Amino acid sequence: MGQMKQRRPTSRKACWIFLAGFLFFWATFVAAQTSSTASANTRRVLPQSGIYLVFPFENVGAPPNLDWIGEGLEELTIQRLSAAGQQVYSHAGRLNEMDVSGFPPSAKLSRATMLRMAQELDADYVIFGTFTSDGKTLTVDSRVLRVSPVALLSVVHEGGPFDEPMTLHARLAWRLLRSSNPNYPLSFNEFFKMQRPLTLAAFEQYVRGLLANEDDARLRYLKEAARLAPDWPDPDFAIGEVYFQKNDCNSALPWFGRVPLTHARSVEAIFATGVCRLQLGQPDKAEATFSSLQEDLRRNLISGADLPEILNNLALAQSRMGTVANAKTELGRARDIDPDEDDYPFNLGLLTLRENDYAASETHFREARDREPDNAEDVAFLVYTLEKQGKKSEADGERDLAVEEFGPGGLPTLKFDVKATNPFAKYERVKRELDTTSLRLELEGPETQAQVQQTADASVAPPKVTPAAHLRLGRQELGAGRLDAAEKEFRAALATDPHNASAHRELAEIYRRRGKLDDAVQELQLSLAARDSAAVHTILARIYLEQKKPDLAKAEVEKAVRLAPNYPEAKELLEHLEKNKSTGGAK
Q1: Helix, strand or coil, per DSSP, at residue 263
Q2: Residue 402 CB neighbour total at 10 angstroms
Q3: Quick one: which of 261, 321, 329, 557 is 20 to 30 A from 71 by CA?
């Protein structure tokens, strides 16, 4: 089986941070496609209030054995808001942002810190709160912190019997929506009908499963939740995910198969199913899975909504079935969409090696090496293709540079099964994680505004196209490789908010892709002037490295580490720079 490489995050929106609202709308569209009675003209477009970031609720008066309720209320709030069509950062997204900011998962955060994280993630609202219980009653207080303009909204208070928290929380979530959007048009009964009925027992087992540190305990809790609520797909998906992370695809597939197409996590379940089919040596089934998923995304969501991870895995399935030409096309598209990832040109290099086209292979492996200089395997294949072309001096030069970079013996030894149909199969890089950030729907964009006007109550004004909306549209265009359209959106955001740190950061990425590194540096400096960020310091450091300015790069990455000591990218880059300096290899 090919190599399963984890993607190294390249932006604030790491691969597994997604908006739950996107997945909700995916489910809505699929439900309409698969229903004989649903119609695009009769679907109701739910009102959008903005993007929410939810934090665990703090235990201020309940026994320690009820601590699980804090993160349970977070997860339940995410589910409630998502079911009502709101865009909400996932629990995993919140944890990742805390890690980037140097906080452990259980840290108690000040409102100022929550606000800064929301700004980094371009969220519009923060939800946090407290709870207390004596085992018989449950009392919850929650507040909404508006990001721009900054405002702390009034406390929303709910209390009731401990054994009836689901209705209590549903009313809390509805009132929080009304707090952030006074014109929210849905009544509580309408909001409540959108929610899945859940028992406290099943939900408790589910949350305890999410919080468990060991796989055995996690599976035990989640399977009990699945037993108590057999029609609830969330435990099914979570169980499949545990097995998937353990590379136990035979156990994962049945659980992923229980996740319906209308469920918010179905995109991830289908993608993981395709990965498992590759891992189990079933390229025909993998090809069908990824091809169907890609077509559904194109048809049901937005034009140009190609995801490079899907294209990559689709190409690998096609290549294993012998349709190499199609595989090249899909990989070329993936490479163009994501110009930072080295896996796509690397896999293209493997495809051309199969055809003994060593000149093309050299080009692809050189691109992979340039995209990810720290990957020794990229360099090893580049050296191999140079040697196959008789370019001994160039191969020796690359090998010498590798000694400086990775130390003696740092290049892996390449071993091929020359008798196999595809001797390079074990080196193929399958993408195991799906980044849906480029598919964040432009729910505040012109098309959706028109739909809202047609389908919602006529007395409700359509959403305003805010700087955050322009940012989301711009990121969508950037993810699809349309740089001019993306730049237009980011400049529209700056026209309204000239000090928008995120817009400057995204413009820097456009300049970097165009090779205008000085302009990229200027935009990143403007971003930092508006809001200090470990991620932006790290991006700036990488651009300084591209400009052969290692001292400036080191200064920036040191700032990043001081700001966020646990930020993996900053720590790795600093270690890389210090290693190069100690060996005299810094460039």
Answers
A1: coil
A2: 20
A3: 261
User: 537: number of CA atoms within 13 Å, CB side?
Assistant: 25
Alpha helices by DSSP H, listed for 338-391, are 343-354, 358-371, 376-388
CATH architecture of 232-431: Alpha Horseshoe (1.25)
Q: What's the gap between Cα 119 and its chain centre?
A: 17
| Cβ–Cβ under 8 Å, residues 351 and 327 | yes
**Which of 24-33, 181-190, 271-280 is most confident?**
271-280
**H-helix or E-strand spanning residue 57:** none
Q: What are phi and psi of 44, to 5 degrees?
A: -90, 125
Where along the chain do its domains lie? 46-195, 232-431, 466-583
The alpha-helical segments, DSSP class H, found in 15-90 are 20-34, 68-83
Residue type for 33, please?
Q
Work out whether strand 137-146 and strand 151-152 pair parallel, antiparallel, or are unpaired: antiparallel
Q: CA separation (Å) from 118 to 94, 113, 125, 216, 531?
A: 9, 9, 7, 34, 12
Please check whether residue 70 is in contact with residue 210, taking contact to mean a CB–CB distance below 8 angstroms. Answer: no
Containing 243, the helix (H) or strand (E) segment is helix 233-245
**Within 13 Å and on the Cβ side, how many CA atoms surround 146?**
15
First to last CA, the chain: 37
511 CB-side CA count, 13 A: 20
**What rounded mean pLDDT belongs to the chain?**
84
Give the pLDDT confidence of 204-227 residue by residue, as tens digits: 999 999 999 899 999 999 999 999
Q: Is the pLDDT of residue 526 over 90?
A: yes
Contact, 51 vs 471, CB < 8 A?
A: no
Task: Say if CB 362 and CB 381 are below 8 A apart.
Answer: no
Whether 232-431 and 46-195 are alike in CATH topology: the answer is: no
249-257 vs 266-279: helix crossing angle, rounded to 10? 150
Q: Cite the DSSP H helix spans in 531-587.
A: 534-546, 550-563, 568-583
The structure tokens listed for 74 are 């977070």
**Band of residue 409 on the pLDDT scale cut at 50, 70, 90:** confident
Classify the phi-psi angles of 290: left when phi > 0, otherwise alpha if psi is within -120 to 50, otherwise beta.
alpha
No. of helices (H) and no. of strands (E), the chain: 26, 9
Q: Average pLDDT for residues 569-581, to the nearest whole number?
A: 82
Q: How confident is the model at residue 444 (pLDDT cuts 50, 70, 90)?
A: very low
46-195 under CATH 3.40.50.10610, yes or no: yes
> Which of 38-52, 196-210, 287-301 ranks highest by mean pLDDT?
196-210
Q: Is the pLDDT of residue 123 over 60?
A: yes
Element (H, E) at 42: none
- pLDDT at residue 435 greater than cutoff 90: no
Does domain 466-583 fall into CATH 1.25.40.10? Answer: yes
- Of 436, 431, 366, the C-alpha closest to 394 is 366
Angle, alpha carbons 533-539-544 (nearest 5°): 125
Angle at 97 between CA 310 and CA 248, to 5 degrees: 45
Nearest C-alpha neighbor of 115 from the set 55, 48, 46: 55
Is this prediction's pTM over 0.90? no
* DSSP classification of residue 65: G
**Predicted pLDDT of residue 216:** 96
C-alpha to C-alpha distance for 348 and 360, rounded to whole angstroms: 9
